[in-house]
Amino acid sequence: MTILRLARTELSRLTAGKLPRLAVAALILVPLLYGCLYLYANSDPYKRLDQIPAALVMQDAGATADDGTRLDAGRKVADKLKTSDAFQWHEVSAADAEAGVRDGKYTFSLTLPKDFSASLLSSGEFEPRQGQITVTTNDANNYLVGTIADRVVGEIRNSVASEVGTDAANKFLVGFGTIYSKTQEAANGATQLADGAGKARDGAHELASGQQQLLSGAQQLESGTGTAAQGASTLSGGLNTLQDKTKDLPAQTKKLADGAKQVADGNELVAQKGELVAGAAQGFVNDLDQLESDIAARLRADGLPEAQVQQVIVDLRKLRGPIDTANGKVQGVAGQLRTLANGAHQVSDGAHQLASATPALTAGIGQAADGGRQLASGTQQLHSGATQLRQGEEKAVTGTNELASGTSQLADGAAKLRDGLNSGLGQIPHPDKETRDATAKTIGDPVAIQTVGQANAGSYGAGLAPFFLSLAIWIGAFVLFLLVRPLSNRALAARQPAWRTAIAGWLPAAVLGLAQVVVLYAAVTLLVGIHPAHPVATLGFLLLTSLAFVAIVHALNALFGAVGKFLGLVILILQLISAGGTFPWQTLPDPLYPLHHVLPMGYVVDGLRHLLYGGTLSGLWVNLLVLLGYLVGGLAVATFAAHRRRVWTVSQLKPELVL
Question: Is the pTM of this model over 0.70?
């Protein structure tokens, strides 16, 4: 008797009659009912989240920023939620939301508090506090919905944080632009100050040079008037000699008066130039006062705090200290030059008086003695005036030298101020609007997440398909042996070889198992809409899985009889918890690790994931070898059972337990 004949006999027994044929058809459909309907029911639950009722409590009163901008973040979030497909939102009061979640009317609630917008603006007031979003869940309604709600709230938080952070960063960068603009204005003012200080320095040096020339003239004048005084003192003692020698005196005194007049005019010109310089210096200082006031006004207008405005004024006053000192010296020198000019006029007047007196001297020799004394006295006064003129010129030279030194320090300080401001200006960020917006967006949302899927299941149902397909095939193999006999009694009684009896008992169930897989695969791909990346290979892998699972269940039933059915259920339970069909198998407790590595369903799940989702197939051979090993091992165990059952026992003829 051949294997095929034995198998055909068993199949004929199973299909003899209407009810047996219906039973066989039901056995074929068992995996379909379990696997296909479950996958259909859970194909994509996320697409129907809008059917889950959720309460939305919007209490946010909004807030106004310092610049007058109005923020209604709570209303924006509420409107965005209600227009999304994430849950069926109902905007209700806090009391209704609490009661609804407690009673199950709403699965969960989300509350936006009254100070939500104000909290988001608090960082700009240096009193930072977080905007709180309260989620109220009730696991009695549904545990997983609460988990999904936490994810939705997390996305809301990230969105709000990005928007608020971008706005704050944009204002921060605009502030940099304002600082840059005002610093540029200060740098331009410092450049003008440096130019003016340079001109003042050049003028002071020219003034110092002119004063040195005046000093030289005053020294010559002093020497000349000293000689005149000595001659006048001897005049009264030698009137006779003087009469002969004074005939040219009117012309000489006229020249002396003209020279004194030139000196007086020169000193007057010097005094006027000194006053002009003093006026220019004082005007420069006055301009600095006005510049200081203008800078302070601009800083206040730009919103700079008063303390910082006063600090800027103090720094500017420190910079202009040398200018004020130099201006004081210039004013003093100008006064001294005016005194010198007035003295020179007195000398000029005396010289003219002398020139007027000399004709009278020649007219009357009798009055010569008196005129000589007057001349001696006048020339002595002239010498004193010349001495005063020389001393004034020395002071003027000293003052103009100090003025030149001060204006040089002023020019150096102004140049350093100009260079420092220009250098600092280059270090202040000054992005354009496009760059500023991009930078603000990056600061507000610095991390971008890019998800790259090497293999993508596509839906929740497709993600569970490997687990439930393998589970359905095991259940299908299990129920087959509710009707199929694992070993043919006829073959055992006929003393057929054990291997032939074992294979003949496995083959009918294997054929029915293949039919189960074909029906299940067709329904999952055509009706449920799960499309494998490798359709032919997936079907072949499922067929091999069915052959191996049938071999395992066949061996259990052949070796242990009714107890084998119970062992099939136990192994099913062990595979449910260790296959890693839902959570990764690495999350199992350590004592369960060996179950994953030993039992076949974990390898089936792993192989199906790669075949369904388009993952790499380089490791598929391991899964194939394991299934082939279980197939061969199952047939070997069934052969051993057939060999042992060739000897009939009382328990075989009258079993204690029948399932």
Answer: no
